[in-house]
Specification:
It contains 17 helices and no strands. The chain is mainly alpha-helical and 382 residues long. The longest helix is centred in the first third of the chain and has 44 residues.
């Protein structure tokens, strides 16, 4: 049994990380490792990797769940609640303040230049995430074919939950049979996935915003979303933009931009959207709904981490869901790119950001600030 850390130390550590954790989940996890393995010697690298593997086997935001895992490991259930809350809280407060300003000033011409410059840069940042995740997720012909199929079906409007479920089941089936049979299964992906997606697809219709519907939506997302926080974009667009008409594409891009430019988990995009749609009550309920499943899943899975890591079934399902999640990211990036890249200057901004990312690898915060400056230079005086 590892030695327990004082709750005050856990609170101080994760509040500090919540304030300075820019750069996305990979950067957050690297910071956590430096603190708990290198500096404090709370865990060995093998123990840290065990917890990291466990986060990939459950839905939810990886870096937030890693904070929750570490809190549970060092402080039991009180540590679980404290570490997760302290990591999330700074971002929620910052995003709430930005959401208030956005609602009050966001539609005025005086700040339109900001999103004009930042939105193309966000597309480049998401493309980088897709590239990095793709190199890990696409490991052969079957994952590549599965990913292409999911992208195609998503672009034609199929339900994202059906696509995730079908991809997970197909990957599991392929993992349990011989390679020759796997090839036959791969050839049936299109028909199988199409039938499942068609069974659950619903006609788009505008529905009124209610706190109950808003809370249940984000509770659903927090309970089923695998992969990076960027996959959240696909779920948001499918229901809030396409299905219910609650957000425009530009509002969705703005929400993702806020989640990216602030420290802490990208899932605080839910805080921004909750405030945008239903004020302070919406912000609080959306935040609680999207993060609560992560606390529950960590509490349930940490005691059985060794068995989860060795489970062939869990691994097979996860492989398919990861590929489908990546594919949904690609499809939604195409849609959002059409809203963000509207003329030659925004196309050049996106291209410049892509080059900067792959040549110099700057922190994404600097890229977003550069996009804001470019927007001001191009449109600020208009």
């Amino acid at each position: 049994m590892p030695k327990r850390a004082p709750l005050s130390e856990l609170a101080t550590l994760f509040l500090g990380l919540g304030v300075k954790a820019f750069g996305g989940p990979a950067a957050h996890i690297a910071m956590m490792r430096n603190e708990v393995v290198e500096r404090r010697k709370w865990l060995t690298d093998n123990e840290f990797l065990d917890l990291l593997a466990a986060t990939s086997l459950i839905p939810g935001p990886n870096s937030t769940e890693m904070a929750i895992h570490l809190g549970y490991k060092r402080g039991g259930l009180p540590g679980l609640l404290l570490a997760g809350t302290c990591f999330i809280l700074p971002a929620c407060l910052i995003v709430s303040a930005i959401a208030w300003g956005y609602v009050r000033y966001g539609d005025t011409p005086q700040v339109a230049w900001l999103m004009y410059g930042v939105s193309p840069v966000i597309i480049a940042v998401v493309l980088e995430a897709i590239w990095k995740l793709g190199r890990t997720a696409i490991t052969g012909i079957f994952p590549a074919l599965l990913g292409i199929t999911v992208v195609a079906l998503s672009l034609t409007g199929w339900n994202e939950l059906a696509l995730l479920g079908a991809a997970g089941l197909l990957s599991l089936m392929v993992g349990l049979v011989r390679p020759t049979t796997a090839a036959v299964l791969a050839a049936t992906i299109v028909a199988f996935t199409t039938s499942l997606a068609a069974a659950s697809a619903a006609a788009a219709s505008e529905v009124p915003v209610t706190l109950t519907r808003l809370t249940l939506f984000f509770l659903k997302v927090g309970s089923i979303l695998f992969g990076s926080g960027y996959v959240l974009i696909a779920f948001l667009r499918a229901d809030l933009t396409d299905q219910w008409g609650w957000l425009t594409d530009q509002q969705l891009i703005d929400a993702v931009t806020v989640g990216q430019v602030t420290p802490g988990p990208v899932f605080t995009t839910a805080t921004f959207i909750g405030y945008l749609l239903a004020g302070w009550s919406g912000a609080v309920l959306a935040t609680l709904a999207i993060f609560t499943p992560g606390f529950v899943f960590v509490a349930l899975t940490q005691p059985i981490i060794p068995r989860l890591r060795a489970s062939r079934l869990a691994s097979g399902l996860l492989d398919g869901i990861v590929v489908a999640s990546l594919s949904l990211m690609i499809a939604v990036t195409w849609h959002l790119g059409r809203s963000a890249i509207v003329d030659l200057p925004t196309a050049l901004l996106a291209a410049a950001a892509v080059v900067a990312i792959f040549v110099w690898r700057p922190n994404s915060t600097w890229l977003i600030l550069g996009g804001a400056l470019s927007g001001w230079l191009l449109r600020g005086g208009a």
